[in-house]
Amino acid sequence: MAEQYGRTGGTIAAAGLTACVCLLASGCGGSGAAAEDARPADPVPTLRQAADTLVDAGTSKARTSMEMATGGTRVTIRGEGVYDYTRQRGRLKVMLPQDPSGQTEHRPITELLAPGALYMKNRGAGVPADKWVRVDTSTLSDGNLVTGGATDPYAAAEVLRGTRTAQYVGRTEIAGTEVHHYRGTADLTAAARTASPEGRASLAAAAKGFAKAEVPFDVYLDDEGRIRKIRHRFSFVNGRQQATVAVASTTLLYDFGAPVDVRLPPEEDIYAGRIAEE
Question: How far apart are CA 240 and CA 243, in angstroms?
Fold first, then answer.
């Protein structure tokens, strides 16, 4: 596991989950002449508007995959849940990998995503099972793009607001839906400047905390401009080992309009004690 991004007290806790890269690589089909003729002349404006298109869509279900690679070791974390883009709230059940011996079973961690905050239950590390841990995402050096073991779906879309360069790759299909595949690079500093008021601080923290503010991505939009799949490639320096950690985060969005009711825990259910370092 990567180094914990700890602070003190109950808000420190998240980064023990840092780990990471993608799975969910979807098969890509070829694109015909008609599809090539229909591709947008300049995909950059389309991608910069992708987050707003999700807000218009309202809600969806989500699957996430995060893989971290360093020193020949790879760790993968998977998640599944729902997200409300109008309120910027989501709920994920995150499955941690086994330890290297393959013997330790981890209970799924329930994560609630909200503007500026990450809530985790079944966090471990000395936290009572019935208590939540709350983390201020603007205090995390990755802005919670990596720490929670899953990238907040709306934050993933807001990264695209900083799209600098992009090219249209062609049409393909994901889970039975025809999509447009784009590949490009986004700048986190630029994304932070144009992000929603709730997301600016976290993206600005990520721009400073990652090894590079430039984020390569692949994104797949349906005919309505909604993100169906997005893959980012981040990198950061592990503070203990001073080794660069490569992270690939993949988010798959589907079943738009699904009912979503995310309620944040009351203050008395949030753990205020010290988090053990893992």
Answer: 8
> pTM for the whole thing?
0.82
Selection from 44, 24, 2 nearest residue 187 by Cα: 44
Cα–Cα distance for residue pair 169/172, rounded to 1 Å? 9
Beta strands in the chain (DSSP E): 59-70, 73-84, 89-95, 109-114, 117-121, 132-136, 163-174, 177-187, 214-221, 227-238, 243-254
- Per DSSP, helices labelled H in the chain are 33-38, 43-48, 50-57, 153-159, 188-194, 200-209
pLDDT in tens, 59-74: 999 999 999 887 777 8
Model pLDDT for residues 119-165, shown as the tens digit of each residue: 999 876 678 888 999 999 989 889 889 988 999 999 999 999 999 99
How many Å apart are CA 91 and CA 59, to the nearest integer? 12
Rounded CA-CA distance 21/149 in Å is 9
76 and 94 in contact (C-beta within 8 Å)? no
CA distances to 180, 264, 266 from 194, in Å: 24, 27, 32
